């Protein structure tokens, strides 16, 4: 299971970074989402991997660490909100400039020469 | 337990929704509430700073839960100094945004401003790394709104970059927190300080990775080269009062580095040895150089100031990277100075917009209200470039003095002095082009007569400059205060014992032996 979780985090992160480096709005937002999934799984794993144990202090002999679950919950809520914000701003920028590149536009004198 | 400590967070948190709900259609009422809130905030901050000034550490346990499990808010000298600085800066920035009418050019400026203040105050006061993350997010969400306030395509594009860069930074922050939690089983700063000390240096690779990740996160916030790319466009395109308020946001990164790397990962800790000298110091020197070269190379006034912010953060980081009490004391003095100077410069750049087509560094007809604006630019530029007699010069002297006995002395002196010279040239060129050469350019016949900026705008900038002068005049008391702070930071026993030994709910549970049950070593045994 360790291998499965570790490779899942690794693949998600790699795919996310690749998409972020595409520098166009839609792939970048997808990439950021993948990265947040990766970090959520990573946070789960930081409390050690346990199967079939309750996340609360009960009379049970084994229990899984409850704190990472609380952290993940907060992280998920925040990342959802952030993604919504970036979608709205990116949409505004796209509608205004008719261009979905994330990087700076070329300085005016360079584009002016071409046209 | 006194509730004063959490008031800097709670007051803006209540005012912001109140402004949205009760006063959303009345800009006048919004302004009154917002200003009253900030004045109240200054009063609270003064009270807290006075309370902390003798070295008392005030602890506030949320819901009365004891420290390693519960959330705590801690006010010590460093936190209260930063809280006071933020609230004073907020007052002048708010006055400017009212005077210049920036707050009326889009909706919800005042509410977002209050949320921004809440996030910054929370980041300074929290005693828990995860809550530091949460407050970072609060201040970032508010800053996204403020950054694109008043709209416009260019601003939205810069906003997309800013949001995305910070989203990636947040992801990195969570990775760092996950690694720290996996290694130590706690995220409370005081508890971490105790547990990290107990690590066997031979098995410390995990905690070292966590420390480096965390340093990177804070370096993104502080815009240290090579993680500074988000700053120039975002700060140059943001509305002027917002950019001025953002001057404190890079300092949040510097504050977090000072806090975490004096308390949790102190320089003598074997697990993270070399992190400051080998990694932070070169990065700081390069950002100082890059920032000041950017000042020389910038083609627009607002970009020039954004680069000078990078340079001044480099200066702060050079001083922090020395990691001696003298270095930290000098850094704290310089943080106060550079926050005020950068904010004043951003506002002055906005004043210079009156009657100019753009802020390009080209000779254009004289601006409205030119003489006063030019005089203010002159003073603020002297402060930022670090020429005598203002506090930038004193701060730089303190930094050079702190570096005098260290092995990196040659590098620090060479880069600091060289960068200062370059920035003087850069500012002189910008000032003479914008304000002086304007006299030689004829005003076109059909030009509209530009309206000079409102008197309140000048009052706000003048207030910031007065604070700079006061910071210079009272440099003696200020430095002895920062020296006392630095001394306490390197002996965090009072902080740690206040946080961990104050009783609350679950304290008796800890005495039953749970506290001794070290999560990390315990788990290590099972593998």
Biggest sheet of chain B: strands side by side, in what order?
A: 1-2
Shape of chain A: elongated
Query: How would you sum up the global shape of chain B?
Result: globular
Count the beta strands of chain A.
0
Order of helices and strands of chain B: HHEEHHHHHHHHHHHHHHHHHHH
- The ordered H/E elements of chain A are HHHH
- Tell me the Rg of chain A in angstroms: 20 Å
Please give the oligomerization state of what you see. heterodimer
Largest interface: A-B, 37 and 31 residues
Characterise this structure.
The complex is a heterodimer of chains A (115) and B (527). Chain A is an all-alpha fold. Helix content of chain A is 68%, strand content 0%. Residues 110-115 of chain A have low confidence and may be disordered. Chain B is mainly alpha-helical. Chain B has helices at 7-22, 27-52, 77-100, 109-125, 129-147, 153-184, 189-197, 205-222, 231-237, 240-263, 275-297, 301-322, 325-351, 370-385, 391-403, 409-436, 455-473, 475-490, 493-501, 507-514, 519-526, and strands at 58-61, 72-75. In chain B, strands 1-2 form a two-stranded antiparallel sheet. Chain B is globular, with a radius of gyration of 23 Å. In chain B, 60% of the residues are buried. Residues 512-527 of chain B have low confidence and may be disordered. Classes of the chains: A mainly alpha (115), B mainly alpha (527). The interface between A and B is medium-sized, with 37 and 31 residues.
